[in-house]
């Protein structure tokens, strides 16, 4: 990622994802989310659908798509935060555009921040299939917890 600007949140996120590659950390390790791009305010994750992701109709379950969106949008916020700041998702809105077949190939999900303030942050995300077609998109609102100071 060269000489791109960085934040403490981005560096922390890179460390967590590196640890996850080694140990299968958290939800990313559980379902196979991989980091493709990590920048302040922007992340791109990939995911290859698996048979275990199936809903009763034989396509990728909406919960998997929601998890991918929540992860990318939340991490876009995380990558924008200063040292010691934390966040949590307050609201998640997902729109499913087209079905995602289990054998449809790798999905890409780009999450980007819209606004990052001291108390709240918003972000949007887009999931595209192997053909580059939009399959889902969403927005999130996150609560930001500012770093604790000893003052």
Describe this structure in words.
- By secondary structure, the protein is an alpha+beta fold.
- The chain has one domain (8-19, 28-145): Thiol Ester Dehydrase, Chain A.
- Helix content is 26%, strand content 36%.
- It is built from three helices and six strands.
Provide a brief overview of the structure.
This protein has 151 residues and is α+β, with helices and mostly antiparallel strands. The chain has 3 helices and 6 strands, in the order ααββαββββ.
Please estimate the helix content: 25-40%
CATH topology: the name is Thiol Ester Dehydrase, Chain A
Low-confidence stretches: none
Instruction: Supply the CATH architecture.
Output: Roll
Using the alpha-carbon principal axes, give the shape: elongated
The ordered H/E elements are HHEEHEEEE
Provide the structure class.
alpha+beta
Keywords: Hydrolase
Domain Thioesterase: 58-136
Pfam families: 4HBT
GO cellular component, one term: cytosol
Task: Describe the SSE topology.
Layout: H1 8-23, H2 26-31, E1 34-39, E2 42-47, H3 62-78, E3 86-96, E4 107-116, E5 120-128, E6 134-145
Antiparallel strand pairs: 1-2, 2-4, 3-6, 4-5, 5-6
GO molecular function: 1,4-dihydroxy-2-naphthoyl-CoA thioesterase activity
Pfam family, one: 4HBT
Domain Thioesterase: 58-136
């Amino acid at each position: 990622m060269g000489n791109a600007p960085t934040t403490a949140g981005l560096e922390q996120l890179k460390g967590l994802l590196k640890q996850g590659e080694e140990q299968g950390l958290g939800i990313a390790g559980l379902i196979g989310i991989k980091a493709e791009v990590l920048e302040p305010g922007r992340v791109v994750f990939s995911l290859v659908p698996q048979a275990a992701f199936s809903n009763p109709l034989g396509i990728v379950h909406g919960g998997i798509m929601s998890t991918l969106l929540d992860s990318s949008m939340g991490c876009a916020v995380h990558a924008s935060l200063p040292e010691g700041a934390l966040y949590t998702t307050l609201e998640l809105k997902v729109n499913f555009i087209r079905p995602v077949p289990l054998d449809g190939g790798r999905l890409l999900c780009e999450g980007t921040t819209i606004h990052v303030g001291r108390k709240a942050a918003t972000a949007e995300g887009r999931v595209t299939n192997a053909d580059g077609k939009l399959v889902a998109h969403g927005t999130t609102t996150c609560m930001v917890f500012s770093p604790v100071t000893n003052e």
